[in-house]
Amino acid sequence: MPHSFFHNFLLLAGLCCMLPDSQTKDYRTTGDLDHDKNQEGPQCQNFAFTITNISLSLVQKAIHWPGQTNFVFSPVSIIAAFTMLSLGAKGSTHKQILNGLGFHLLKMPEMEVHRCFQHLLHKFLQPNYQIQMITGSSLFINKRLKLVDRFKTVMTELYSSEAIPTNFKDIQEAKKQINKHMLKKSYGQISQVVQDLPIDTALALVNYISFEGMLNGGNHVDHIVKEEFYLDTGEVVYLPMMNLLEKFYLKKDSHLFSWVLMQHYVENSTAFFIMPDTGKMQKLLENLSPESLNNIQKNINKRYVNLKFPKFTISATYDLETVMRTLGITQIFSSNADLSKVTKDAPVKVS
Fold it and tell me: Is the dihedral of CA 162, 157, 105, 124 positive or negative?
């Protein structure tokens, strides 16, 4: 493939369970049939479609965030965190969260939405998936405030989340506590999550994800050498490049103006590596949809590829308020927030 392969590179990594009927036509992992027969949990196909739509919407908006050239974030875990918070919200705050996430369009009871998240997050955290994925949310709350028992129970049972008493009167100590907690939860992978906190903070929501996939099918890196890597600025740098020569799922998709390489990981996890033609990133984002991803998976074929891929690590920290405002979710961050099902001791908002 030409050097333009390296321009405008977009990576989407997700799980097949987010897309109904999303297995490639000739791919089936060992044990999938038995797993399907014994699969527990609610039937959440409409839920999965909604989650995929809102996730892609966030990706499309992220490209316009000021000061961002590369970005990495997990729309699903962010959505899960705020859906969890909706359990503690009332009135217009509660309605705005669910409407902003598109759940008002689902013809299913609200508690079933939370059960679907429970089922999905349980899949993410299954150790037999052999994917090094660490994801979750932690709620840091002023230690003078008492959580409503019901909220504390459901956030733990449905979202595997936790509430941590914090002394926000000492902002420096609070930042240190949050960052130390995140470092521990991510097994040393995530540090310095919080750089600053407002002096009136009473409630802080921290959402985190760390992902490292293991290749399926016995793929191995032939060798790693330093080769040219072309930046958008035209500058050429030398980076360690992993080299693989074998069959991959590869397709030139005219609808997305892109080359698409699809890599199955162990179990049902799949990564899409989408490489838009030069100058076609915006077109790609406009056309990206659950239907387009499903269509790719149903029609993609294996072909021999000499794949050269940069060995890299990307990390980033985002202000969730900025992210959620793009979905019209604003009240929860304001003094008008009604989180009285989280705590009744004092009015609180999310920082």
Answer: positive
| Number of Cβ within a 10 Å radius of residue 108 | 16
3-class DSSP assignment, residue 78: helix
pLDDT digits (tens, 9 = 90+) for 154-212: 999 998 888 999 999 999 999 999 999 988 887 777 778 888 888 888 888 887 777 66
DSSP for 289-303 reads: -HHHHHHHHHH-EEE
Cα-only R_g, the chain: 21
Tokens of 120: 């999905």
- Which domain does 127 fall in, by range? 45-213+319-333
| pTM of the entire predicted model | 0.75
Segment 267-298, tens digit of pLDDT? 556 778 888 888 888 888 888 888 888 888 88
Q: d(Cα 351, Cα 345) in Å, to the nearest integer?
A: 18
Residue 290 located in a structural domain:
yes
Residue 40 covered by a domain: no
Same domain, 198 and 245: no
CATH classification at residue 70: 3.30.497.10
